[in-house]
Amino acid sequence: MPTLSLDDVDLRYEVAGDGPPLVFLHGGWMNGDAWQSQVNRFTPEYEVVTVDLRGHGRTGESGQRRYSVELFTDDVEALLTHLDVDQPVLCGLSLGGMVVQEYLDRHPNQAQRAVVAGPVQSMPPVDVPSDLKPFVSPLPWIAASASFAGPTATFQSLLASVRPMHGGPWLSVDPTVQSWAQDAVSDVQRGEFRKIFRALYDYEPPELSHVSTPTLVVYGDHEVSLVKQQGHRIASAVTDGTVLEIPTAGHLVNQDNPDAFNEALTAFLAGDADRLAS
């Protein structure tokens, strides 16, 4: 697996296919393998890039004491420069979608197109005044739980805390995908789990009205309603935003229903609005 050596971490990534660059960014505590169905579908036409963000998967721990969405975005920018990628199509899910938003804020017209899936703007997905966030932060509990119970049990507790509000499974509707996600989390070290959560919790979403990049927001029909609302905010904020709901899918929408997700992405990349709407 290729490696980009940065100051404090060796970033692991994969490149497959040939054509315009299509870059996939995974969700929190997941890894680049989350996009395997998309890699298989798009490598005949695109140069497909996947990466394990710092703290995740095969990249693993780094020397940074604290992570942030801004830091993850710095890493992605370094990778794009390393690969000599100009005007990429960026596709991110959850944490990866936050990175896409941060990238668009920095470079409002540099990406060819952008996809924000499982469209989280903030954690929790509600408006909490920034001056109040430290007082209601679950970070002490997350740190203690990750240290003593481990990442997998902590992750399961996080999922369970959302389920009563949602009324059913929301991360994934597919038991195979659920099992894959648990395995991915189990590969994350305890300290890294805490740092990743803090990056999610501390992120202040940018105001994106200056972004001219065509942007597709995608979520599953089993997604948490508050996340759906945030997705509509993202699409409304940018100059050219479209929202699409994928059936039979939860938060891990690209894995739950890869055929529908790939079809939507194909239409979006082709600029086929009519086909996308259908």
UniProtKB/TrEMBL annotation:
Keywords: Hydrolase. Residues 20-257 form the AB hydrolase-1 domain. GO terms for molecular function: hydrolase activity. The keyword Hydrolase applies. It comes from the Archaea. Signal peptide: none annotated. Gene3D superfamilies: alpha/beta hydrolase. This is Alpha/beta fold hydrolase.
